[in-house]
Amino acid sequence: MHELSLVQGLLSQLESLARQHKTSSIRIVRVEIGQFSGIVVDSFQFAFEVLAKESFLMKNAELEIRVPPMQYKCFQCQNVLVVDNEPPAMCSKCQSTLLVPDGGDGVILLQVEMD
Amino acid sequence: MCDACGCDGTSSKVLEINQSLLAANNAMAEKNRIHIESLGAVAINMISSPGSGKTTLLEKTIDVLGEELRIGVIEGDIETERDAERIRAKGVPVVQLTTGGACHLDAALTHRGIHELESQLSGKKLDLLFIENVGNLVCPATFYLGEHRRLVIISVPEGPDKPAKYPRAFIGSHVFIISKTDLMPYFDFSIDYITDDALRLNPELRVMALSSTSGEGFESWISWLRSLCIRTV
Lengths: 115, 233
What we know:
Helix content of chain A is about 30%, strand content about 30%. Chain A is built from two helices and six strands; from the N terminus they run H-E-H-E-E-E-E-E.
């Protein structure tokens, strides 16, 4: 449910960007959500749709969410492994099984496309 | 013509932002941290599910350390003053923050709590500031409040599968407390298993197993708190 407060923060940031750049319409908002951010993509999308409808600036805006693949770092040899979902069973270099999540905890406003 | 980029204003414009949505929260949290340090305190943000024993852990900690260290508490809950009343009964300064529905504390609300606490202190200093977050293992993990240490607590009845299910709370924490160990005989719970799972997410976690009821394992918790408050000057 914290997705709602994050989207509220995003919308107020977009409103101030729009004022700064003198636009009355935002077309596309691109956001990156890490798989370890604890943020549910569907809830974020839902909150955006509900809140954006109420804003003249955002009523036609499209939200594009990018979820990058997960990265794990080997605790022994520091080798970085990139996977789509399940954590890898062992390090491809040293066969250690202690692989630690590397990043992926961010939620980032990447780009805004406006008129 | 658009005076920002010089275009004719008809085509779309792409702004590269690349900024965390938490940037405003985190900037406020950094101010909180400075404010907390000006009170002389080390702050600990406590994150757990409802009912894992955060408030009881605080009560017992105040019983042990209340004479020796100056402790203050900020309580976060969706509704009610109940937790603050329990802490107030122990004679330490406490502020209750009610989020009115929100599932987590954020830096702005915490900022208000620090000011309220400061007015209660009327010029006195603190050694330890506990921030008891809203009982929730998901949402609070996303919001930095300005704390120096973050604590995640899982109680024995909750089961040993929690690190795998709620990784964010473990990745962002410094200490992992397994609470209610006096209930071990009644539950199928392995301390080794949960410790191993938690360390896989965060090898730097300090793990402590304790019971606020029996006092088992309490000594390492208390000495860790004392170590935080050792003044170098």
